[in-house]
Amino acid sequence: MKITNPTKIKNKSLIVFDLDGTLAPSKTPMDGEMCGLMEKLLEAKKVAVIGGGKYDLFKEQLLAPLKISKDLFKRLYLFPTTSTSFYKYEKSWKNIYAHQLSQAERAKIKKTFAKVLKEINYQAPPKTYGRVIEDRGTQVTFSALGQDVVKILGRDKGVAMKDKWRDENTPVKLKIAKLMSKYLPDLEIRAAGHTSVDVTKKGIDKAYGLKQIEKYLGVKIKDMLFIGDAIFPGGNDYAITKTKVDYMPVKGPEETKKIIKAILN
Fold it and tell me: What is the pTM assigned to this prediction?
């Protein structure tokens, strides 16, 4: 259920965040204010983060800038590549599960991406940065501008380029996702992020992630709050509405900060 009044969320025992566009701009680290707020939130609540990026990206965006104690890290739970894997902190970060795609599945996905792009006469950007189709093991992702556009061009220019591509090409991205679903009905296809289409094993999405939190952490979905920037039809957070989780949509990290402050205050 969508919540508009932050005063109703005080009793939630676990807060679940999307990463890109919610805690930080796309593929960039959380800023200092967000890190400070996350530290205070972890002192009061358990926190889980579900995002489409791989674990290495979680480390760059979330863990590296977050200078907190080991005890607080034990209250933080990571679900990279759309919850196809789960990490928790013990003496170090430990992988609890990973739903790997088989080598044959990954090869078929890459071949199908090539087929779909040709079928729609896809016009690639004049220049891309890093791999356009990245094999993440548990997930294969198409990124229109390349995986490293923000890393190579820098935060401001890279994010601005991704925003521009999203604003001009979202119908193209949705068309790619629709055709991928047609040709790969036994896999899960999502139009994700600003410029991406993700493919994972069937049935794995952010609703699945919430159920894994319930299973592994013993927190009921009714006791969670989900915060994300894409809780709308076609958005990569929308799957959570298949559950009974309470949620609050945001338009970016600044709105997320306001919600965290409301929880803390």
Answer: 0.89
